[in-house]
Amino acid sequence: MAESVQQIPSADALTAPATLLGSRTLRRMLAAFTHRDFRVQWIGACTSSVGTWTQLTAQNWLILSLTGSAFFLGLDGFLQQLPIMLFTLIGGVLADRLDRRRTLLASQYLQMTTALVLALLVYLGVARIWHILMLSFTAGLAQAFGGPAYQALIPSLVEDKKDLPNAIAFNSIQINIARVLGPLVFGATITAFAKWGFTDVQGMAACFLVNALSFLVVISTLNMLRVKHIPYTGTTRMRDELRGGLAYVRHHGSLAALTVLAFATTFLGFAVLQFLSIFAQRVFHEGAGTYSELLAFSGAGSVAGALVIAWLGKFKRMGLAVLVGQLLYGGLIVAFSQTRVMWVSEILLFLSGAALMVVVSTVMSLVQLIAPNEMRGRVMSIFMVAFRGGMPLGSLVSGYLAAFTSAPTVIAVNGVLLSAVATYFLIRSHGVREA
To answer: What's the whole-model pTM score?
Structure first.
C-alpha cells in the first residue's frame, strides 16, 4: 500500500504571502502619494517646514539669550499666532472665493521676506526683541491668509476622498519630520559655526537664512501644481458668507465639539514645546545641543504617531481614538514635567509627541471629512482660529504663570487639565466619541 506523502511548502511559497501583505501595507500607508499633485506639494511643504523649524528653534534660543525671560518666549509665541486669531476667518472666506494657489504664493513670499530681514538684523548685530516680535507678527499675518487656502487645497490634491485622511496624516508627518530635522539643523549650524570661529549669533543668522531659502522650494512646487481654480460666481457679501460658515459649524454638533476640543489641545498642550529651551537650560543645565535634542525626540514621536494614522486611514471610532490619545498625552506631559533624568525625559517626549499627533491628525481628518467642498475654506478657517488660536493664548498665559512659578509646574497643571477635558468628552461626548 502506497503511503501518502505530505508536501513541504517551498521557501518561495512561504515568503510570498508575507511579501504580498507587506506590499499591500505599504500601498495603504502611501495611498496619498499615488496622486501626483499631492507628491509635488508634499515635497515643497516638507522642505519649507524644515526651514521654518530651523528658524523657530534658533529664534527661541535667541530670545532666551537676549532676555532670559520665559514671558518673552510666551509673548513671541502669542504674536506669531495672534494674526491667525484676528484674520483667519477672513482668510477662510477668501479661500472659497480666490485662487487658493495664488493666495498661498503671496503668503510664502511674505514669510520669506520676514526671514531674510531677521537674518540681516541678527548678522549685523542690531537685532532687538521688538524686531523679533514685530517680524513674528508679520509672518503670522501671512499664515492667517495662507493657512485656510492650504487646508482647503489639500482635498483637491487627492482625487479619491478615501485617501484624504492619509493625505492629512502625511501633511502632519512632513511638519513633524521638520520638527526632528529643523532642531538638528540648528544644532549642527551652531556647532559648525563655533568650530569655524564664528559666534552663536552669526550661527543663528545662518539658520534664518536657511529658512528664507527653503521658501524658494515650496514656491516652485506651488507653480507646478495642475489644480485648476474654479472662479467664484456668487454674489453674496463676504460678511454674509462668514456668518453662513459660523452658523454651519455652530449647528453641526460634532463640528462645534471638535473645534472646542482642538482649542483645548493647543491652549494646554503646546506650551511644553515652547518651554523646551527652558528645560534644557534651567532643568538639565545644558546648552543649545540638548535643546535641539529634546525637540528632535518630540518630533520623532510625532512622526511615529502620524505614520500610525496614515496606515489606519479612515477607520471606525476615530473620535474615541482622539479622546483616548488626549487623555494619554495629558498624563505623559505631567510625567515629563516631574522627571529630571535625561533619557527618561527623551522617552516621555517621544511618547507624548506620538499621542499628540494621533489627536491632531485625527481631529483634522474628521473636520475635513465632514466639511462640504463649497464651505471647506470657511469651516477650516473657523477650525484654525480655534486650533491655531489656542497656541498664542496658551503660550502667553503659560509664559506669564511660569514667570511666577516655574515651567515644570505650569506644564504639570496643563497636563492635568488636558486629561480632564478628555474625560469630560468621554462622558458627555457631544458627538465626538461617536465620530
So the answer is: 0.70
